[in-house]
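Section 3.1: Structural characterization of target chains.
Under the original work plan, the team committed to producing a structural model for every single-chain target entering the pipeline before any wet-lab resources were allocated. The record below documents one such target. The sequence was received from the expression subgroup and is listed exactly as submitted; it comprises 227 residues.
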Amino acid sequence: MINVLDKTDTEIKTDVLSELKYDPSLKVTEIGVLVTDGIVTLTGYTTSFNEKLAAVHAVKRVAGVVAIADDIELHIPDANHRTDGEIAAAAAHQIAWSTTIPKGTVEITIRNGWVILEGEVEWWYQKNAAEVAVRHLAGVCGVSNSIRVQSTNKIPAVGMDIEAAFNRHALLDAKQIRIEVAGNKVMLHGTVPTLTQREEAERVAWAAQGVCAVDNHLAIEWFKTGD
């Protein structure tokens, strides 16, 4: 049977610190952790936007975490500072050289080191690829991905396709997830054990042909198999 297992905030904090320490891309001594009712607040600083994201993703892997408040500050070393023009040029090259992103579909704007992506693509993975291509660049302080996913395909069986994908997935329990489809929009309801699995369920839903929007209402409920 499935039993809900509670973790104390102290146990969650210990696990979060261990996961941050385990990740070789992070300097755990520069990141602070506070936990209240399963909500993790990250403080301190990192030296790059990519490292800041890595810290958040590490916390999402920890069982018992229900939400994350990212209060990490970004302290970019002088050697990595870039002008908006330099970041724009580098970002444009990254997007242009990508074999995943259709040419001419993404517009790039830089404001004080913040990258704003706009435009229109047919698939979510193309939108995601654009963000991944620029977020590691030196001088980047953050990324706003406003690229629209627009598809002319309306597949009546899209819900069945997503459900089948959930059933195939090694990390997701399809019985805990309910799928609603309205036109090109997919809504996910139910529970998953971790924030990472919540994101993975959303990624799987986005992968279905014809999907232009995903509303992820999955709640975090940590459970384990018991006797």
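The helical segments are 9-22, 49-60, 84-97, 124-135, 158-168, 195-206.
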